[in-house]
């Protein structure tokens, strides 16, 4: 049960009464007549074979307030794409599967690459970006939610609570970030958010002084949550990173494009668990190690666009300040865990802090060494300006794949 306290400069919408999901959905059915609602699901093919996604689809089937579900499918060959079409066919809502590795979307990607407008690396950011483009092209929804496909504790109330703030016709929110307690199986999870992002933001505030941007970022209770919702017009101008800085990049873009009173965060679940990444202490190109570097770089880049000048001495001071703050947080989380009868391994927590401290320096060095790096995918507004019919091409490519590869008697109906 959440409290009613408002912290920071972003509106927090709490779960104060455990309102039944049926009541929320009844409201959403009314809202969707005025403001059609949609959902984006970025997925790897391997997630179709996992435990989480089949259960998610079962939970989604009663969500009849959704006008469209857009699924981005990565790392799939033709046989796997055909299998995916059948897999998602259990959804009664209109849905489309973007075969990101298929010849049509690859050709479109190559066309954009010739104009230096294509995403530069594969990953969730690229997947989400093409799904956003298709949502613009389809023009069937006004408010859209996005969440991951590896949520083991998924319930359809998560979606209802996530999309409600941008679906309500009398709310003025353009964007909603989901949050939740990362507690499952008797443990406190979410190490990167707890032990990197929050102490890093606090350290940056000590080093750089008061900045509204840092206060804004620190207002989010779970900044790395992969669940958010937005109005359709957000999709035109947002520029997102293609790496693990996606969530930080999205929050930063919303700060740049909208007033704070148009943004909110909502409590969407009491418990949340998903696929866990390895710490990867010996490999900074994978797992939480790479994630921590990408996230740190995303913050440094955004601060640089706000006029902050970084140098090697800045990063050394930042590392030392972060390390002290993060170690204090380890004790705080340990005490919180003990009081709640949960487990938390102080040794492993401090090992993570040590790794993150090293990676803050690596991120700083990379930031200084590659000042011309362009990690952001161009906004769809810019892409449309360079190629005015690109959305029509994207729509036709997805529809052509759907017609050619989908089997079944009702292929043309949905």
Describe the fold and architecture.
- By secondary structure, the protein is α/β, with parallel strands linked by helices.
- The chain has one domain (11-400): Spore Coat Polysaccharide Biosynthesis Protein SpsA, Chain A, CATH 3.90.550.
- 50% of the residues lie in helices and 13% in strands.
- It is built from 15 helices and twelve strands.
- An eight-stranded mixed sheet has the order 1-11-6-9-5-2-3-4, sandwiched between helices. Strands 7-8 form a two-stranded antiparallel ribbon.
- Helix 1 (21-34) packs across helix 6 (156-167).
- The model is unreliable at 409-413 (pLDDT under 50).
- Keywords: Transferase.
- Structural class based on helices, strands and sheet pairing: alpha/beta
Determine Rg (CA atoms, Å): 21 Å
Biggest sheet overview: 8 strands, mixed
Number of strand segments: 12
CATH class value: Alpha Beta
Average pLDDT for all residues: 93
* Number of discrete domains: 1
Q: Biggest sheet: strands side by side, in what order?
A: 1-11-6-9-5-2-3-4
Q: What CATH architecture would you give?
A: Alpha-Beta Complex
Shape: globular
CATH topology: Spore Coat Polysaccharide Biosynthesis Protein SpsA, Chain A
Uncertain ranges:
409-413
Question: Into which percentage range does the β-strand content fall?
Answer: 5-15%
Order of helices and strands, N to C?
Answer: EHEHEHEHHEHEEEHHEHEHEHHHEHH
Overall helicity: 40-55%
Spatial gap, N to C terminus = 40 Å
H/I helix tally: 15
Find the CATH superfamily. Spore Coat Polysaccharide Biosynthesis Protein SpsA, Chain A
InterPro entries: Nucleotide-diphossugar_trans (IPR029044)
GO molecular function: transferase activity
Keywords: Transferase
Protein name: Glycosyl transferase
